[in-house]
Amino acid sequence: PPARPPPPPAIALWLSDCPVAMLSLMHEVAKEVTLHLFPEYSSVREEVFVRIVDFPLVDAIRDIRQSHLHQLVRTTGVVTRRTGVFPQLQEVCFTCEKCGFVMGPFHQSTNEEVKPGSCPNCQSKGPFSLNVEGTVYRNYQKITLQESPGKVPAGRLPRTKEIILLHDLIDCARPGEEIDVTGVYEYSFDAGLHAKQGFPVFATLLEANSVTKKGDAYAAFSLSDDDRTQINALSRDPRVGKRIIKSIAPSIYGHANIKTGIALALFGGQEKHVKGGGKHRVRGDINMLLLGDPGMAKSQFLKYIEQTSERSVYTTGKGASAVGLTAAVHRDPVTREWTLEGGALVLADRGTCLIDEFDKMNDQDRVSIHEAMEQQSISISKAGIVTSLQARCSVIAAANPIGGRYDASKAFSENVELSDPILSRFDVLCVVRDVVDPEGDSRLANFVVDSHAKNHPDEVGKDEEEAQGEATVVDEDLIDQGLLCKYIAYAKQHCRPRLQSGDLDKLARVYAELRRESLATPGGIPIAVRHLESLIRMSEAHARMHLRTTVIDEDIDVAIKVLLEGFITSQRLSAQKQLRRRLRRFIARGTEDYKDLLMHVLKSLMRDQVRLEAARAVTREGAEGDAAAAIQVELSFFRGEV
Questions:
Q1: How far, in Å, CA of 554 to CA of 560, rounded?
Q2: 0.85 cut: is pTM over it?
């Protein structure tokens, strides 16, 4: 007979069914063992806690019922609100007012308050006062956990649950973060619910034992040695920059300029604190604007960044107000005092804020993010609260032109309802036009059809060998998305590139030439000193992409090409060719893709060969008056399959 699996250990079953008693025993044993190994540890920390992680059973917030009471429960969700930190009674002592006898200590539970009945010394029933010297307090904080948006059933509203954080778990999660909570499911008597319902109703809560952030999987401090080895091996690849750009949103065809800008924005530049300037700080985050015709995958790019970035907040222009983007003042339900609640830009601190339908925002709401995009702070003066909040995030926005379609015959200012102050705060500007190209449209159609066929649910469940055999031929340069997220987090944490003195002259020449051209050709984006800082930021981001500590000429050339491409495409169609001719000397040859050059040369040679064969056929058959012979040409020469 087959061998039976071994039964689960008894301590695991006891921990699941009686977590309160088991955890208190574990805390005591852990403290005894720690003090036995390190006798002086009691001077560092008074208590030692045992945290339970990777509990095998995960329950959704809406699936927790009365059968889970007083048991260990694991659930996931998004933090929506967090209170302040309050002292809570842990062990309380009382003093008899008549005889002065000190009673206690009594262990204070979270459900009900402990009160002595009578004094054991004089047998009186009070009054009793709190003994301050013998009372022990603990940190107490309450957060509200809401179901993740992707896990809510269709047609339902997300449900919430209150989580109690004690001791060292306070401030372990901020609003907007997705966390994994393991704790004891308890109840507490709620007088408000009792008066409202008319019969005993208990409010339920989860007393947390451990809290794990979902974003910590790709954080730099949680990388293993194997991850670091893979990251260092990938950085030594001379084509790592092009591979990363190609791996950005691999399900979207083309748009190399947008993918380059997104890659630079994800890596970001190096922030600087000016010496002798007080608190003056120069931002290192890169802001990006996608402007173009509908159906060009602008929103899909934003959704990809939301999944890839370590910390990101997604919002839309119509669904966001000035208060929702910056900060709101509301009354705290516990203390009844006015408190601040951060908006999208504050929640995206040290991350990315994504704004779709940027042109649909009201002008008053759009003005509110001016300070956040350049100074990366939000100043608040409401309800007696005067403070400044940090908003150190890169803003990536997508907008549609006036009327829906971009008219290349008009100036850039006539195509978009955005003012010059907001446009000058964007480092990368990508104008996307839906141009009819029979050859490009056929390749795009083949890509979309193949993508739909490969990603069908029936196809995904097939044998992995066939899928791998198809993928290795086409996607040899693609980087795994998990490794790419770890690579970005590692680069932002450990790489701080700096400019060399020899590179400053080239940047100054490019800036001076762009200023002159922007005055000569009005109607495009205005060039300001911010664009010079944008060149420096993009150069540092490209160097960080290769894990370099210094910026080299290749990084500056890529930054110049990205800025010039945005400047030229924002001009009228009649002036673009002249601008490209005049600014050609600033675009180094190394930044061009040699495959495109080779394809252009092969197409030219093929066209000349077709004309030559046609002319020879006409010459041979000219005497008889017959038509020229048809020439068959392989279509692969024109599809780029070289």
A1: 10
A2: no
DSSP letter assigned to residue 498: B
| Beta strands across the sheet bearing 288-292 | 312-316, 352-356, 394-399, 288-292, 428-432
Residue with tokens 């020879």: 616
Measure the CA–CA gap between 390 and 375, rounded to whole angstroms: 9
Amino acid letter, 98 = K
Q: Which amino acid is at 208?
A: A
d(CA 13, CA 22): 10
**Omega of the bond leading into 7 within 30 degrees of 0 (cis):** no
DSSP symbols for 214-264: GGGGGSGGG--HHHHHHHHHHHT-TTHHHHHHHHSSTTS---HHHHHHHHH
Measured CA to CA, the distance from residue 535 to residue 509 in angstroms comes to 12
- What whole-number distance in Å separates Cα of residue 111 and Cα of residue 159? 23
| Residue 145 predicted with pLDDT over 70 | yes
Q: What is the DSSP letter of 327?
A: E
Contact 411, 523 (CB under 8 A): yes
Average predicted confidence (pLDDT) for the chain: 77
Q: Compute the C-alpha angle 264/344/305, nearest 5°.
A: 35
- In Å, how far from its chain's centre is CA 635? 42
pLDDT (tens digit, 9 = 90+) per residue, 474-504?
A: 466 787 888 888 888 888 888 888 887 666 7
Question: Could you read off the pLDDT of 583-598 as tens digits, one per residue?
Answer: 776 665 544 555 666 7
SS (H, E, C) 399-457: ECCCCCCCCCCCCHHHHCCCCHHHHCCCCEEEEECCCCCHHHHHHHHHHHHHHHHHCCH
Classified as helix, coil or strand, 393 is coil
Specify the pLDDT at position 467. 46
DSSP state of 347: H
Q: Report the b/e string of 555-564 with b at 16+ CB within 10 A.
A: bbbbbbbbbb
